[in-house]
Amino acid sequence: MLQKFENIPYALGFIGHVFKYSALFVTRGKAARKILIMQLLFTYIEALPLIAVLALALGSALYLVGNPLLLSIGQSTLIYKLLVVIIAQELGPILVAFIVTARSATAIATELGSMVVTHQIESYVSVGVDPLNHLVTPRFMGVTASVFLLTVYFSLCGLIGPYFLTLIFDPVSAGGYFAELFKELTVSVILTSALKSILFGMAISLVACYFGLNVERASTEVPIAAISAVGNSFFGIILVDVFIVVLQYIF
Fold this sequence. Notes:
Strand content: under 5%
Number of strands: 0
Number of helices: 9
Largest sheet: none
Helix content: over 70%
Structural class: mainly alpha
Radius of gyration: 21 Å
């Protein structure tokens, strides 16, 4: 069991309050919306170049390696299914979640931990501001939305990129390429990818905020919280992915 659930009632209460405040976020003021926008800027916008390069490289590598092999056994059309399953459904969402964990989970845990050490959290409480409502909820929503949007972006780059390789090595009409691709891009694939990305984003943000706020008084605890947030986020991502895969096979 994750270390963050050593105190299960507190952890469940923490998650419940974050979900409750998220549902009421539209009633919040400019300060909370500004935090949400800044989180989207850091987690989503600034990650776009890295995601694009990774997606193009992965999609191109899959096509270059898989297409000749499938062509040799007379199953060249399977390359489209391979691209869709790996890029959009399986590997893509996990890679995006890992990148967001490495960038944002570390930053969030460090920032919140530093705020605890410097008594900024106490200041919020003393003036009647709930830290979960003001600090955690915008980060939770921002990271969750970012992972979803980055997964969509990753899928688009990873699926469209190989088409340009076909123009060099094995010319295929745009209509033929995308017709075969969309044939494999079923509703089930899209829903699975969307569900994974949303749950991954929730897991990353909740774990990062939890460990950041659970720093005590010493500044030396801040890097420990950041490391714990990253490690437990990775574990949570894998756990969620396994759970979804099992559900797919059952139903």
